[in-house]
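Sequence only, no structure available. Ideas?
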Amino acid sequence: MKSKFWIVTAALLALVLGGFALLSYAQDSSAPVPQKVWGGHHHARMGYLMRELNLTDAQKAQVKEIFQANKASGLPLMQQMAANKKAMLEATANGNYDQAKIQALATQQAQLMAQAMVQKQAIQHQIYTQVLTADQRTKADELRAKQISRIDSRIQKLSQSAASNSSQQ
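Reply:
I predicted one. Tokens follow.
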């Protein structure tokens, strides 16, 4: 039960962070960009990927067009997620705890985050298939394999930590 909770929590957090990254790239480049979006990690990650893949100016323009085209469908989703988070904060203010209400809000947030994850993957697929060259796709695949390896390593460390904690009890 605990592991399922942590998996759902991690998935929800990943989706929210991905949504913020999507919004930060969907902004007009002439508009002032905030210095940090949760430490700037995800904004920096996208810039890192663009540098690592050596995108041309034309490709960067194509990526920007893809984000702009998807902005209309992504913004309402982000607004719904923000409203849901506000409702959760209000529902738990002053130490309140109504498990049924919190569960309903959490379920709604999970559904919204799932929609955002699907949209994010659709955008990534569009960039991968329509913008990147064969060499860039190979490099992107290598970067993805490294990311998967890092995740596997974290999972292994968490499993070892959980095993050692349960053996100590």
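The radius of gyration is 19 Å.
Hope that gets you unstuck.
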